[in-house]
């Protein structure tokens, strides 16, 4: 068996390289070229609105904790009369389930009628005929209620 002797390559490291824990630079190695990083995109506008709203809430919470009420809190503390009247009317309703069901059914009926009118409007001759009927009825209504009332022949 042949004995192999390990060959060691001498490393010449300076003390500054050992202290800085950097590998020694060799002149043959290419230096990297700097690359510009892409600029960060601004946050979406809804995030800035949300952040502003959260800051306003935090400001109000701090002012309420200290006992001072800001002008915004005082202005929004009063509910308008229409809200009060709606709340009073809702409190008087005995069968809230039926009223809610009727409101939902009314919304569905409004949506369905809008779809039906849109479908009729797409038909070729119907919109023109309906427009003529509407103009004729408007003329008849105006003649009957305005002209006859002016002359007293009603």
TrEMBL record:
Residues 85-148 form the Cyanobacterial aminoacyl-tRNA synthetase CAAD domain. One of its GO terms (cellular component) is chloroplast thylakoid membrane. The keyword Nucleotidyltransferase does not apply. InterPro entries: CAAD_dom, CURT1. It comes from the Eukaryota. It holds the Pfam family CAAD. The keyword Phosphoprotein does not apply. This is Protein CURVATURE THYLAKOID 1B, chloroplastic. It comes from Sesamum angustifolium.
């Amino acid at each position: 068996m042949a004995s192999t002797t390990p060959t060691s390559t001498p490393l010449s490291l300076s003390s500054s390289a050992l202290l800085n824990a950097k590998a020694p630079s060799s002149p043959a190695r290419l230096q990297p070229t700097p690359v510009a990083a892409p600029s960060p995109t601004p946050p979406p506008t809804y995030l800035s609105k949300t952040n502003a709203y959260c800051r306003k809430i935090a400001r109000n919470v701090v002012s309420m904790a200290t006992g001072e009420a800001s002008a915004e809190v005082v202005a929004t503390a009063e509910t308008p009369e229409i809200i009060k009247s709606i709340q009073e009317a809702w409190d008087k309703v005995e069968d809230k389930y039926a009223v809610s069901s009727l409101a939902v059914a009314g919304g569905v009926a409004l949506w369905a009628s809008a779809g039906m009118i849109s479908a009729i409007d797409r038909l070729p001759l119907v919109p023109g005929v309906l427009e003529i009927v509407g103009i004729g009825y408007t003329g008849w209504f105006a003649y009957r209620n305005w002209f006859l009332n002016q002359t007293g022949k009603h």
